[in-house]
Amino acid sequence: MSVLRLSGFLRKLPAEARRSSALLLTADSCGSCSRLRSSDRIPGWMYYRRHYAAIPKKSDRSKQLWERSQLIDVLEARIQQLQSDVILDVKHSKVEFLKLPHKEKRPPAGKSKKVQPGEKAEPPKAKQSSKKGAAQTSLSSQKTHGSRWSEKLDREKSDRTKKYTRLQKKFPKQVVNETVEAKSDTKQQTAKRSKGKKMLPGTSTKIIFPVKKSTPAVSKETVETAAAEKLSGEADVAEFKELYQIIDQCSLVETESVKKRDDSETQLSACCYLEACVYTGDVERAQRFLLLHHRNLSKRSVLTVRFYNTLMKMWAKKGALPQISKLFVMLAEAELKPDAGSYSAVLECMGRMPESSTNLIERCLEQMKEDGLCVDDVFSQCLFRLDERDMVLKAVRDGKPDYEPPTSAKSPQCSLTLVKDFYAQREDVRFPKMDFELAELQERFKQQLAVEQSNTITIDSVEAIKPVTENMTKMRKLLEVQYGHWQRSLLQALRESKQVLKKGRLRNWKTDLYPLLCVLHDEEYVKIMLQTLENLPPTGDSLVNLAKELGSRVYSTFCIQQKIQMVKKMSHIYNSYAELLAKDTESSNVLPRERWIELEAEMSAGPSLLSVEASWPHMLLVQLGCFLANLLVCELKIPSNILNPELDNKLIPILYHMYIFRNSRQIGFIKPHPILVKIQSDATVTKLTFDSYVMPMLCPPIPWTSPKSGAYLLTPTKLMRAVDGANQHQLLLEKCQNEDLHAVLDSLNQLGNCAWKINKPMLDIIISIFNDKGCDKLDIPPPLTEAPEIPRFNPHDQSYTIEEKAHLKQEIMKARKKYGEMHSLRMDALYKLSIANHMRDEIFWFPHNMDFRGRTYPCPPYLNHLGSDMTRCILLFAEGKPLGPTGLDWLKIHLVNLTGLKKRSSLAGRLEYANSIMDDILDSADNPLTGRGWWMSADEPWQCLACCKEIASAHRSPDHTEFISCFPVHQDGSCNGLQHYAALGRDVIGATSVNLMPCEEPQDVYSGVAQQVEEFRKRDAAKGLKTAIVLEGFINRKVVKQTVMTVVYGVTRYGGRLQIEKRLKEIDDFPKEYLWDASHYLVQQVFSSLKEMFTGTREIQNWLTESARLISKSGSTVEWVTPLGLPIVQPYHRSRSQLVRSNIQMLNVQISYDVHEKPDTMKQKNAFPPNFIHSLDSTHMMLTALYCYSAGVTFVSVHDCFWTHPITVDTMNKVCREQFVSLHNQPILQNLSEFLLQKYCSGSVGKTNKAFLEFNRMQQLLARVPETGDFDLQRVKDSTYFFS
């Protein structure tokens, strides 16, 4: 807003406001330079200086003199650097050398005459030092008093000289000089702007780097002739010029990339800092921060309109319109245009003013129109807190009494070909209801809201069931007392640290954590630190991981605290939304996402449900976490004689900061004291504390309506999972049109709305084994008391030989590794079983999100259906359905599938086998631990036992067709990755191998590969190959299965060899001395076999790999869009290190997600084929989920394994096959080719020959789609064993 417009704006102000705003109207403004003249009438915090530096106080006069002295040092160093170059005067094609006079050395700063304020500093005297030779000048280098700027300039000059020297060694000197001369025209303007350079009228300047000997002056024509003769032709000269341009261009691109990266990181961190200041009410700090950046042109580039809007909102709450007017002036100075958020703050402020002028509001609305905005933009683009929206609406209606905010227009339906019928043809469709009444769902919402508001939940550990001993009771009391001491110590230390930070002068906001330490109550920070201490492994953890955990917990708590203000509005919306799901309401053809959006539009008054503040960047979380970790290390202490009273009583730290080596890198490590480990181990803590998001939800999740809204009620959740700190996926999703993501969002909502319950009999059996030393055979981890004892010896003991010491050290490392693995597995099982035991009488839900490839995952990390065999067996559908005529048969077939037997048998053969072992099934169900134990030999023993119990109950029921079953039956894809490859290539042989072709019996691709490899082995054994002879009798399906399965997902020969070696180790009779040779031989044969069986697959895989290689070499990451419209980008960039300063240590954090770094070509090309196939299998799963929902079928998935009730298996199988055919009827590879050509080959081509050749090669490759075979996809619909 210009000052002229502001003047007209303020004329409408009331008298009191006009008097307080008159200060601004006296300021002169210039649009070209955007600065204010100084005036005594302008307030101190608005005072603006030409040099854009902070205003010195009278008490800082000595500091001012020091800064002036330092500035003179910098200028002198710059002048000396410029004088070290040779300035040429080019005139009439002749080159003459000019010498500039050298200034004399200024006396040291400490002995210089003091400069009084108001006086001009005396310029330093110059002192010449010259040497004979017209073309060579040497300067006596001179150091100022510790000036780091001078050293930096010297380093820049040295780097430039080294670069020139390298070019000189490779090319003739004349050509180098000629190239520099050829570039002089483009550098003239830069040289003219450089400080300290004197230019004569009518002359141009060039820089020639200093060399050891003087170079005689030669004309341009002479140089060109000599160069042409030396390099034998103009082509070589052009080649060198091209090389020189490439070097400069690469250097420029790298510099710009680093600048963009630094600016984006600084901008986000600065925004979070300012918002934290405003959130905590620290007005002075917020103003000081903004002015510090606004007054300095170099720092002003960080500021965006959002920074100014943040302060405007702060002043709007106070009704301070003059302060907002000042910020509008600053916006104009920064050459930024006010947006809808800016005018929202103005209108809110006017709405809060007791006397608001109608004329003033009308003038504001007119200015909005002049800036290309309208009132509707304020309500559609801005997010509001508390009563902000009401205040804005009040002000608008004062100017426009009949105004009504816009209601969100009905968004267009998804028009993608694959789901067009699903969305368009819904007149006769009624989506299924949940088996809950409306009042019950509303009560469950209240319970879940209470859990999330508390942010953490404490539950009983299943280990509490064990008998309590006297020592256990003693240690628990001891630990409870110590936690009380630690809580008080941390609280006091935190408050003292905050006082120190508060009093500190704001010199560098990047290291000022004070605002972030005020967004929560002090007790909340202490609670977070103690919770992290409880979860610390006995072997310790790296400081980086600990800092991430602490910072993330603070941020999560902060987000939940912000959303508490919108609880009332959310409750109203959810209570109405539950009517769509409850069974005692009318059925509907409206999707959950659509209903939630309708309700939000109807209840638009009040705060927005989305978060207003910016998300905290990863490095900021690490920095905050380091501060809290330092408090833990420094403040938590314990008496040294707490376990042994005979020792001296002194306080010792319970945590130690140390350094260890990992992969030849030294990292900081936090390790607990053995005393603490001993107490915690003996106490066998009976309570476990988790973050609220770890637990399953007690009510149906909020439906995903956008990339920012969905899943939990208050806990922030990302739609797309990513590495900590990576945001390119979220930005890509936010750029999409909403209708393009409808199918993806609706499929996630369908998966999340499936209700679950605990299989109590199975849970009780597992807990009993867990508390009875576990069982390795059944994958129940034993307690740490069963861990091997770690050997101890004195390394300085001379009785041990060097070999014995080395052996003992190796044994110690193995024992420690084993101990760490056992602890990790034990705690993982403890968490899962404890959560399941806590939820044993509850109905619960798993909200879902996805990874960057579109594969879906439950949000709760421990207890979910994607877990291990032990976890899956204790989960049942909450809603039961009768078995019907085929349900019991499907249960029996499912049981045989879980055993791993009869892989090559037909469904009828598997059913017959199940009926033949009914005695074993019933014995397993009745006597799981004391019977024959048939179930223990299955591939999935715990799920097998659960299925035995379900079959026994149905078998003994009066009518098994009416038996209500909640048991999920699985249908697994037959090597699903190869199925997609075979369908893409229409490969008949490959399609037959992976059951896309109808067959009477299932084709097992793993057995087929094993058989092919055996043929190769026999051939080589006949030739006398020793390895082939040794492998006789050892090649089977299990040995090759993992490698065959993962080849399609990009496994290399090296990785495949390790997989086969692991399988061979499990065979007791195999000679261990041949492990390497045999695995190396087998991996070659497996790859050869797959190449023969899947020719089309290899062609497609090679095309994808080479495409990704050329794309990443061009400097871009690989992107594509799935057939369901989901945008995908591979987040593989070159790693870089970033230093994080903290009191405890300097952290070196490795970052691999920086979008400003070059792509990692190796990862990009290796990952593209498997990631592309994963995106296809996720698309197939989502399509199946949508159409199963439309058919009223309960559906969940574990990637390519689909689950449903026994009675609906046939329906799900039909939908699954139809959607696979529908998916691959699309020209997937052709669409991918067109997208890649449009994305990467539609821009300008590089000027160099090499760049043009690479571009042309990439364009030709992307356009050359692999040819396909003649397999008929419709045959898949009749394939029984496609999914079985």
TrEMBL record:
Gene3D superfamilies per record: 1.10.287.280, 5' to 3' exonuclease, C-terminal subdomain, DNA-directed RNA polymerase, N-terminal domain, Tetratricopeptide repeat domain
GO biological process: mitochondrial transcription
Annotated Basic and acidic residues bias: 116-125, 148-162
Record EC number: 2.7.7.6
GO-annotated molecular function: DNA-directed RNA polymerase activity; mitochondrial promoter sequence-specific DNA binding
PROSITE patterns xrefs: RNA_POL_PHAGE_1, RNA_POL_PHAGE_2
Tree of life domain: Eukaryota
Keyword vocabulary terms for this entry: DNA-directed RNA polymerase, Mitochondrion, Nucleotidyltransferase, Transcription, Transferase, Transit peptide
Principal location: mitochondrion
Record carries keyword Transcription: yes
Residue ranges constituting the DNA-directed RNA polymerase N-terminal domain according to the UniProt record: 446-753
Compositional bias segments (type: Basic residues): 163-172
Reactions this protein catalyses: RNA(n) + a ribonucleoside 5'-triphosphate = RNA(n+1) + diphosphate
Cited InterPro entries: DNA-dir_Rpol_C_phage-type, DNA-dir_Rpol_phage-type, DNA/RNA_pol_sf, RNA_POL_N_sf, RPOL_N, TPR-like_helical_dom_sf
Keyword flag Transferase: yes
Function: DNA-dependent RNA polymerase catalyzes the transcription of mitochondrial DNA into RNA using the four ribonucleoside triphosphates as substrates. Component of the mitochondrial transcription initiation complex, composed at least of TFB2M, TFAM and POLRMT that is required for basal transcription of mitochondrial DNA. In this complex, TFAM recruits POLRMT to a specific promoter whereas TFB2M induces structural changes in POLRMT to enable promoter opening and trapping of the DNA non-template strand. Has DNA primase activity. DNA-dependent RNA polymerase catalyzes the transcription of DNA into RNA using the four ribonucleoside triphosphates as substrates.
PANTHER family in alphabetical order: DNA-DIRECTED RNA POLYMERASE, MITOCHONDRIAL
Family: Belongs to the phage and mitochondrial RNA polymerase family.
Assembly information from the UniProt record: Homodimer. Component of the mitochondrial transcription initiation complex, composed at least of TFB2M, TFAM and POLRMT. In this complex TFAM recruits POLRMT to the promoter whereas TFB2M induces structural changes in POLRMT to enable promoter opening and trapping of the DNA non-template strand. Upon metabolic stress, forms a complex composed of FOXO3, SIRT3 and mitochondrial RNA polymerase POLRMT; the complex is recruited to mtDNA in a SIRT3-dependent manner. Also forms a complex composed of FOXO3, SIRT3, TFAM and POLRMT.
Listed name of the protein: DNA-directed RNA polymerase
Native organism taxonomy: Eukaryota, Metazoa, Chordata, Craniata, Vertebrata
